[in-house]
Amino acid sequence: MWTRTVNGEELHFYLAGINNQNFLMRDKETGTWWQQINGKAIYGPLKGASLDLVPYDELTFGEWKSEVSGGQVFAPITKYKKEYDPNWEPDIAKLPVVISFPGAELKSRDVVVGVEVDGVSRCYPWDTLVKQSPIMDHAGGKPVLIAVAPDGKSFRAFVSRVDGKDAEFFLKGADAAAPSSADTKPSTASAPPLSAKSSKAPANGSAGGPPAVAAATSLSTGQQTQPSATAATASAGSAKPADPAPKPWVLVDTTTASQWNFQGCAISGPAQGKCLERIPILKDYWFDWRNYHPDTTIYKR
Asked: Which of 57, 233, 251, 274 has a CB 3.0–4.6 Å from the CB of 169, allowing a cystine?
């Protein structure tokens, strides 16, 4: 995400095309062409200018709702609904890449998560990140922590320092389950304009859903009817013991032994109330990340 102000002037952008299978936009005020992946002007009166990065997350809706008690969700505008491509990612994945890098250890469409720290670029193969999360590394002379949420899809990166001291983190509990590696494609879809639609998350921050069944609905009358005591008793008698609740996702640092959540904030211990510095992070195809970060290194372990 980028700011829309350049030299004090607010710009308005629209989809202009695709460059190397990457979103290309044009501003209405000057006609300048901008590359979405790096926010740089590549042609026109403002060529060479750059948009300022706005901090953002790539989260599943479920993870977002667990963190946000209220917010807005973009919904398709009805009159443009038929123009949305429901199979954008599968269709794009079938296309040949425009730029390739023979001899690289990664395939063109391998998915990576890239960071840029103090001008130094480094990327992490998605499959490796999912299997090894959390990953402790260094980039641009800073200690880096990259973690994948329990959903196996959401991810964040932080400077791994607590009170100015380098720290390492590990998942609490030796039996912590590794997330799934499903849905590895990066989000690169383009679409018509969107409208904001209000969404309120449950007060308890859960993903929502109906409570345990207390009443049934009659299909013939549409009225609510209470289940009989006999049926309830029989059901209770035959029910299997409930599975134990999953353990919360918690990181522990080796410096203060504090516990940290996925937002990078300490929830208990000496560091409680403090939060780690966030690092901008991007999920992309290898060929695209490499094209715009020619000096990138690749995490190996």
From this structure: 251
Q: List b or e across 108-137, with b for residues whose CB sees 16 or more CB atoms inside 10 angstroms.
A: bbbbbbbbbbeebbbbbbbebbbeebbbbb
- Provide CATH 2.102.10 ranges for the chain: 61-71+91-187+248-298
- In which band, very low, low, confident or very high, does the pLDDT at 111 lie, cut at 50, 70 and 90? very high
Residues counted in the chain: 301
pTM, full prediction: 0.71
Q: Cα–Cα distance between 213 and 228 in angstroms, integer?
A: 13
Q: How far is CA 83 from the centre of its chain?
A: 25
Would you state the CATH architecture of domain 61-71+91-187+248-298? 3-layer Sandwich (2.102)
Residue whose pair of structure tokens reads 């001899």 in the numeric block: 103
Question: Over the stretch 131-143, which tens digit does the pLDDT of each residue have?
Answer: 999 999 999 889 9
How far CA 36 is from CA of 19, 165, 202, 259, 293, in Å, comes to 9, 35, 34, 37, 14
Is 280:116 a contact under the CB 8 Å cutoff?
yes
* Band of pLDDT at residue 301, cut at 50, 70 and 90: confident
